[in-house]
Design brief:
The protein is an alpha/beta fold. It contains 14 helices and eight strands. 49% of the residues lie in helices and 11% in strands.
């Protein structure tokens, strides 16, 4: 067995840890390029901490999914401000945008020079500019991943910049920042976090370290996701921030699977929340993977892994993979996960979605290669 593990240089986790952002930023310089979401006011406390350290902040707002053109604009503004440290303060899209901007600041060029699948695929050769990731949602784990997901409006797809040299220098995870999230965002991000501790566990690139993170994340999500949705404060929020972190650590060092192979494509084609796409597809993908393994690879160790996932989620050592699928279906109903048809997708779009998904990086981590028909059936059931 051979595997590698790489992550953010320093991880600071805990309630109230945002107060440490000022002194930590000051170790890199006095000119910060702060990437936020569409509502920059949410970063008011962060900006106050930076001012307290004599740090000048340039604000760059990213609304929605970051596109290649937005990243190019951000890089230009960061250069004009002569920024020596980048901070991403927001959800996964914002954290990814900051990560991409920090990478291009030192490597030059444009996003398409380095993008996988649709770009030139050039390697990133220089370490990204100092980057501090501060997530305000509990879902993607982007604060500890080595990639940045970007939308290409021309290609109608989302793909990644990817390199270990893009890993943030510091991640500050303060669960208090998630307390004000509305239920819909709590659901979509939390369900994404659940997916991201499940897919790496059944991935064909799983390893003993990522297994540990996934199992811990699955246990915490099974107990706390519903509670975080129903009650916006307390231990459940802290648990879900940790699930998100654990998922990021796992997916960055293993792989994802068919759910995320679909999600990147659908998210690039339609205005659909990433977490909702993932969770709508998750139970049907689980069921299809199990059936395909039983039919074409009955001795596969991944069948046992799906049983272990079910045992953790259901809380029963005798639970079957089918029981795990039922548990996820019930959770989706309780958290009001809508069908794919609610996002403007039609069945006529299925062939295009399937063809693009087969080429997606995440699809390569699925425990078994699914056929076009099997992928179409998943979409049909989730429709």
């Amino acid at each position: 067995m051979r595997f590698e593990f790489a992550t953010t240089t320093r991880i600071v986790f805990g309630m109230g840890t945002l107060t440490e952002a000022g002194p930590l930023t000051a170790t890199f310089g006095k000119r910060a390029f702060v990437v936020t979401g569409s509502t920059a006011n949410r970063a008011a406390t962060l900006l106050e901490k930076l001012r307290g350290q004599g740090i000048e902040a340039t604000i760059f707002c990213v609304s929605g999914e970051p596109s290649t053109s937005i990243i190019s604009e951000g890089v230009q503004q960061a250069r004009e401000a002569d920024s020596n440290v980048v901070i991403g303060f927001g959800g996964g899209s914002v954290v990814d945008a900051g990560k991409a901007i920090a990478a291009l600041l030192t490597n030059g060029g444009e996003p398409f020079d380095y993008l996988e699948v649709i770009g030139r695929g050039k390697p990133i050769t220089k370490r990204a500019a100092p980057y501090i990731a501060i997530p305000t949602t509990a879902g993607t784990g982007a604060e500890v991943t080595r990639n940045a997901v970007l939308a290409s409006l021309e290609h109608k797809v989302k793909v990644s910049l990817r390199s270990p040299l893009m890993l943030p220098q510091i991640a500050i995870i303060d669960p208090e920042l998630t307390h004000s999230l509305p239920r819909s965002i709590t659901a979509s991000t939390g369900l994404d976090a659940l997916t991201q501790v499940m897919e790496p566990y059944v991935s064909n690139k799983a390893n003993p370290l990522t297994d540990t993170f996934c199992l811990q994340g699955l246990r915490r999500a099974s107990h706390s996701l519903r509670r975080a949705y129903e009650d916006g404060f307390g231990a459940a929020r802290k648990d879900m921030s940790l699930v998100s972190l654990l998922g990021g650590l796992a997916l960055a060092n293993a792989k994802l699977g068919a759910v995320h192979g679909f999600a990147g494509v659908i998210g690039g084609m339609f205005p659909a929340p990433h977490g909702m796409i993932c969770t709508r597809l998750l139970p049907y993908t689980m069921e299809t993977n199990v059936r395909a393994l039983q039919t074409r690879a009955p001795n596969s160790p991944y069948l046992k892994r799906y049983q272990e996932v079910a045992e953790v989620l259901v809380g029963d050592s005798k639970a079957t993979p089918a029981a795990g699928v039922d548990w996820v279906h019930e959770l989706c109903q309780q958290l009001n996960v809508p069908p794919l048809s609610d996002f403007g997708i039609s069945k006529e779009d299925f062939p295009t979605i399937v063809a693009k998904s087969q080429k997606a990086s995440s699809m390569k981590g699925n425990p078994i290669r699914l056929t076009d028909q099997e992928l179409t059936d998943i979409l049909d059931q989730a429709f």
